[in-house]
Design goal:
With 786 residues, this protein is mainly beta. The chain is built from twelve helices and 36 strands. The strands form nine sheets. A nine-stranded antiparallel β-sheet has the order 17-18-19-20-21-27-26-25-24. Strand 32 and strand 33 form a beta hairpin. The longest helix is centred in the first third of the chain and has 9 residues.
């Protein structure tokens, strides 16, 4: 069980220097720990299926029905022998939750347009000095069943079952893939901009329908420019007959080296014009009122077909269209996707742009440090197994953090990748043509697992760029898998050179940033999802969501927990953790840093386990408390597989190795709170539990309201027809001893159709699930959220 001393909490949340100087003060002018030790929580924590220390200390709210529950007393063992999982956003009894906008809502000037699928990051830009009215940006990441049974990764046994598209949108998708289906899939990605207002009798945010600045930016925005091409795609300028399906001129542009050194070589012949943005996961909101949206899982394949080609040649252009992908359907060249995109919700005349100095990889989010007379800094994560942690530093400096002119600072600077040392120090390695090549050997990054278990998953895989004539290769482009079995023969050909020996331009390096970073010696990490800069200390908080290796690489086992390394039932689990970077330079522009791990993912009864798994998006509230959501894989929720069969997964605490199935003990994905002051400082406090098979994403505080997306309720399962799944599931109590819990859960979801009409639903227990954006606020407002 993970416990933290007051000193540990101070050092982690206020910084070692701040703790030494300020003593018990966490944040100057905000709170004092010594005077707040007995401060109770301002809400009743939600009771989740698994054990947490707070349940020994505080009463908790146990959900018993949609919008219903009971307060239960503290318990010394904090375990529940039975638990009924609900299909709802369960919040403390002091709060209410309501729907702001859902997939399919017709809220745009063109009544054919509709709000996109699988909502993710949210960013709010106020109009004026108050937060009661403004523009909301919402990312749309991907499409999944029950949108259609043709979507990627739909389980085989859901084919032919009811889907949601026709009932929600009003017309039927084609029954086979083709131009219209692929186009509609891409239209549902990207983002939506909607004006919202809380100027009403209940002070709840709602969309101002038909506002002239409400608009979509999607995967095929600007498709009309295909008419300028000279290849076979010159006539692919629409994907259907409806008004929004007839390609427009709302294309995007690029900035930085790739825009001038790579896009001019692209086979589409469109130069620095880009069709659409898609695969949009998390992002950031700038102090000057623009949105940065991260293009994440853009990599297409025959099975995962909604995507483009990821692999590129030494000059940065794609190796070719990938058969069966939407990239090949519409002629979308891969080098133009996988970037950070800047949008101005308030100004429709600002042409969205992809900033190539921020690198091309599977972007989760971007955290900004913007201070007057200093360079502009951005921290980013590459959300893949073995992905990297990044920093961009602008060449120019900021005059005023709120000036719109700051957007130009993204156009010139340096991109760095982090190298973590096991002793708690680290370096920022610049990715430029003169950077020496020094990849970390697979035998080194996998050394901890290999020493414990006698083997390493994927043999410590470290992909490097494939080059003709290097290490016996006869072709250029894409990646070459290097691992413990072949590193002795392959690595020497990649060592002691420069990136210029592998790439023809700075732009090409940025296009292939993931492989270039491996080559330069960046540390492969445990899927960095959200990154946030502390509002006062400027330390960089990082949510590493999953330490398990995979087909893209192997996280450095000296830094991250990559597996359960013992058969002891309470041995440390691998499910990510909360880390931070402390820059050695005061302004964050230096090349060295220190790093710390505060919370290791895993059950609270496991060694070092913080009581959560797969932490994802983070956000600080106005008191610098940290809030986080979990991103447990849909196919592990509650210990049941996907589809009609919903086969129970094996959860056996007496095994070692990759124990990803252990996340089934935690139930649905949820939202937690870590206070930085008071008697619960440093503890994980559960605040909300999401609907069945969903992910809660993109939390944003707007005044006294938390705006958050509820993504993919009921994903890859039949629409809720009343079928209830039940099983015995093995968990750890707080003493690290296993016990069995009787768990029941609906097989599929009907959220938010199943909630009351007053809260934005339809009171239909077997209604349709829809990705949505919701607001959460106190029933009796106090002026702040907590």
């Amino acid at each position: 069980m993970s416990t933290f001393s007051r000193r540990q909490i101070l050092i982690f949340f206020a910084g070692s220097a701040g703790a030494a100087v300020l003593g018990d003060t966490i944040l100057d002018g905000i709170s004092n720990v010594a005077g707040a030790n007995n401060t109770p929580l301002s809400f009743t924590p939600v009771r989740l299926p698994h054990t947490l220390p707070v349940y020994q200390q505080q009463k908790s709210f146990l959900p018993t029905g949609i919008g219903q529950g009971q307060v239960i007393n503290t318990s010394a063992n904090a375990k529940l022998n039975s638990y009924n999982v609900l299909d709802d956003v369960v919040v403390p009894p002091e709060y209410e939750r309501y729907v702001i906008v859902s997939w399919g809502d017709r809220v745009f000037p063109n009544s054919d347009d509709y709000f996109g699928y699988n909502c993710d990051y949210t960013g709010f830009i106020p109009l004026g000095r108050t937060n009661d009215i403004g523009y909301l940006w919402v990312n749309h990441e991907y499409v999944s069943f029950p949108f259609s049974d043709l979507v990627p990764e739909a389980p085989a046994d859901v084919k032919g079952l009811p889907t949601t598209f026709e009932s929600v949108i009003g017309w039927a998708l084609p029954t086979t893939r083709g131009l219209e289906f692929d186009g509609e899939a891409l239209y549902n990605l990207g983002g939506s901009i909607v004006r919202i207002s809380s100027r009403n009798s209940n002070n709840r945010y709602s969309v101002v329908k038909g506002d002239p600045r409400n608009r979509r930016l999607h995967g095929l925005s600007g498709l009309g420019i295909n008419s300028q091409r000279t290849d076979e795609y010159k006539n692919v300028t629409s994907w259907g007959s409806r008004s929004y399906q007839k390609g427009d001129q709302n294309y995007l542009i690029g900035t930085g080296p790739a825009a001038t050194q790579v896009f001019n070589l692209s086979s589409d012949g469109l130069g620095n014009k880009i069709i659409g943005t898609a695969y949009n996961c998390s992002g950031g909101t700038t102090p000057w009122g623009t949105i940065l949206s991260g293009e994440e899982n853009f990599q297409g394949s025959t099975a995962f077909f909604v995507g483009v080609t990821e692999s590129v040649n030494p000059n940065g252009t794609q190796t070719g269209y990938t058969d069966g992908t939407t990239g090949k359907t519409f002629g979308l060249v891969g080098e133009k996707y996988g970037w950070i995109v800047e949008i101005d919700p308030v100004n429709p005349n600002f042409r969205p742009r992809k900033h190539t100095w921020l690198g091309r990889f599977r972007h989760e989010n971007v955290a900004i440090r913007a201070e007057a007379k200093k360079p502009l800094i951005a921290y980013m994560g590459d959300d893949r197994r073995g992905g990297h942690t990044w920093k961009f530093v602008s060449a120019g400096t900021i005059s005023s953090p709120t000036s719109k002119a700051n957007s130009s600072l993204w156009e010139s600077g340096t991109l760095y990748v982090a190298r973590y040392n096991p002793n708690g120090t680290g370096q920022w390695i610049p990715l430029n043509l003169n950077t020496p090549t020094n990849p970390i050997p697979p035998s080194v990054i996998s050394s901890v697992e290999f020493a414990a278990l006698g083997s390493a998953q994927r043999n410590g895989l470290l992909p490097l760029p494939k080059r003709n004539g290097v290490a016996g290769q006869t072709t250029d482009g894409g990646s070459l898998p290097v691992d413990r079995t072949n590193e002795a023969t392959i690595l020497p050909a990649y060592q002691g050179k420069k990136l210029s020996d592998f790439y023809t331009s700075q732009g090409a390096i940025l296009v292939d940033a993931f492989l270039a970073a491996n080559l330069a010696g960046g540390t492969p990490t445990a899927r960095p999802e959200d990154i946030e800069v502390h509002p006062t200390t400027k330390e960089v908080f990082i949510a590493y969501t999953d330490g398990a290796p995979g087909g893209d690489g192997y996280p450095d086992s000296r830094i991250f927990q990559v597996a359960k390394l013992s058969t002891d039932p309470n041995a440390t689990q691998q499910s990510g953790g909360l880390y931070k970077i402390i820059e050695d330079s005061a302004d964050g522009t230096g090349l060295t840093f220190k790093w710390q791990r505060f919370a290791q993912g895993g059950e609270a009864g496991s060694i070092s386990g913080a009581g959560f798994a797969n932490v994802d998006n983070l956000v600080f509230d106005n008191k610098a408390n940290i809030w986080g959501v979990t991103d447990m894989s849909t196919d592990t929720h509650n210990g049941f597989g996907l589809g009609v069969a919903a086969t129970p997964t094996t959860i056996n605490h007496a095994v070692s190795g990759n124990v990803s199935s252990f996340t089934g003990v935690f139930g649905n994905n949820w939202l937690f709170y870590i206070p930085t002051t008071g008697s619960h400082a440093g503890e994980v406090i559960p605040f909300a539990h999401g609907p069945v098979r969903c992910e809660m994403t993109g939390p944003t505080f707007v005044g006294d309201t938390l705006i958050i997306s509820v993504q993919h309720p009921g994903e890859n399962c039949p629409i809720n027809d009343g079928t209830i799944l039940s099983r015995e599931i093995e968990l750890l109590d707080l003493n690290g001893v296993t016990f069995n819990q009787a768990r029941t859960v609906p097989r599929g979801s009907s959220w938010p159709s199943n909630i009351s009409s007053n809260d934005g639903g339809k009171a239909q227990p077997k209604g349709l699930p829809k990705p949505s954006v919701i607001g959460i606020k106190r029933k009796n407002p106090t002026g702040s959220f907590t």
